[in-house]
Specification:
By secondary structure, this protein is mainly alpha-helical. It is built from four helices and no strands. The mean pLDDT is 92.
Length: 102
Amino acid sequence: MGWRNSLLLTLLILVVGIGLGAITGGPIMRGIVFWTALWAASDSHRIEIHKYKITGSFVPSFGNSWSVFLFVLLLWVYCFPAYLIIRGKILKGIIPLRNEDE
């Protein structure tokens, strides 16, 4: 998924979550953040994110599934779209695998 689509999806989820929270009076956004963090961790385990060479000065350190979960949970607005962008690049084959000595 490209950066525009990732940001739009995150913004859409945020608006819907806040809107539903305002309508119901419940903490909907907390649940959305938790479940998307859990999905990202599960998905990162499935695609074996630890095997890829993820670089960049503004990229969170998604070294394993637990770090994905914690980053997305604690910094959702930034890390959820970042994960979607990285995931898209991995699935397209743009991000190379790590060398064995890294």
